[in-house]
Design goal:
144 residues; mainly beta; 60s Ribosomal Protein L30, Chain: A; two-stranded antiparallel ribbon; 8 strands
Length: 144
């Protein structure tokens, strides 16, 4: 196990609006506020969604597309640096009109109604490095 002790720098509440691209909007905000390490939570409604899971055998994400409007039951993710730039890792659960849910790694989505986010930024920097053993960019915590 590795870990890093983090000190909160700032807490933000962000309201994304109809038509905003989720990842682009968050990354733009991180660059504007110089957020390099952080945690994201949220709820709202999104559309034009791609959710997936990572297949370790093929070393590729397998994505499924959702075009209707879905409630965001919960969204959680983190921000870390990859090659000097903010990098997002986000998972979400979405619910349709019959309250059936789907969830997974969020590749992309567009805000359908609103997306209300809390971003907690930390003073410390945590980076991601590509780890060949699993084929992913993983967090590099400092302490053992």
């Amino acid at each position: 196990m590795r870990y890093s002790k983090l000190n909160i720098d700032s807490d933000y509440i962000i309201k994304l609006e109809v038509g905003d691209k989720v990842h682009d909007s968050i990354l733009d905000f991180c660059k504007k506020e110089n957020i390099q390490t952080g945690w994201i939570t949220g709820l709202g409604a999104i559309k034009d969604i791609s959710l997936g899971y990572y297949n370790l055998e093929t070393r590729k994400y397998q994505f499924q597309k959702y075009s209707d409007i879905y409630e965001v039951v919960g969204l959680v993710g983190n921000i870390a640096l990859f090659e000097g730039d903010p990098f997002l890792h986000i998972h979400t659960s979405i619910s349709d009109g019959e309250n059936k849910t789907s969830s997974g790694h969020l590749e992309y989505a567009t805000v359908a109604v609103t997306l209300e986010l809390r971003i907690t930024s930390y003073r410390e920097q945590i980076s991601r490095l590509f780890e060949d053993a699993v084929g992913l960019k993983l967090l590099q915590c400092q302490q053992l």
